[in-house]
Amino acid sequence: MIHDGLWDVYNDVHMGTTGETVANECNISREAMDAFAARSQQRAAEAWENGWFDWETFSVEVPQRRGDPFVLRSDEGVRGGTTAESLAGLRPVFDKEGSVTAGNASTLNDGASAVLIAEADFAASQGWEVLATIEDYCTSGVEPARVMSAPIPAVEMLLQRNGLNVLDVDVYEHNEAFASASCAVAQEVGIPEDRFNLHGGAVSLGHPLGASGTRCLITMLGVMRRLDAASGIVTLCLGGGNAVAMYVKRPTSSRKKL
Fold this sequence. Notes:
Elements: E1 7-8, E2 13-14, H1 15-25, H2 30-49, E3 60-62, E4 70-72, H3 84-87, H4 120-126, E5 133-141, H5 151-161, E6 171-174, H6 179-189, H7 202-205, H8 212-227, E7 231-237, E8 242-249
Parallel strand pairs: 6-7
Antiparallel strand pairs: 1-2, 3-4, 5-8, 7-8
């Protein structure tokens, strides 16, 4: 578990320690973290079972030494039967008196994702479907030890400079590095549960380092397609105490005619 992407070089601690820091700073209880993690698993399982991920994923064939290739069709870490009660029995990993466990933290995964950004006129000339337009984006920063709270000011900045309140945005997506971080973002920004990470997140789907940013954006676009939502904000923290947030809208032409 110890490598560049999971180590805070400024404070010489594992990133899991920053998950404990945000829990303490924002008064996130172990019970809230476990409930969030269980909900992430259940939502991801529901999304796979209903085919909601089909438009954004494709199967991968893995050659075997003997026999037919192994075909990976869905994320391996999703456990739809997870409950808050079952997670409550797990021991803390990074602090004996803490609350971050293997069950309410993201899983380590291999993965890849990509998006294509283009001018609207060029996309039209190529006959491409425009999934969304980028209305605004921003970065924010806090002390590296508090990195998991960095998305909070990023989202608040986006809302403020676009003249929006939290309920003006239909859906939100946050990278669930730790359930404590996601709970903190939802709590401090005031995002309702029924608008937040509706297809699960990194606790269930996994956190492939370097790919999670676009993965979160794509998953949010999938939620927006399913719900015919008009707008969304996606956010995640970065190394060094930073975070990014992006505000997108779906084109009117892509939305259902009611």
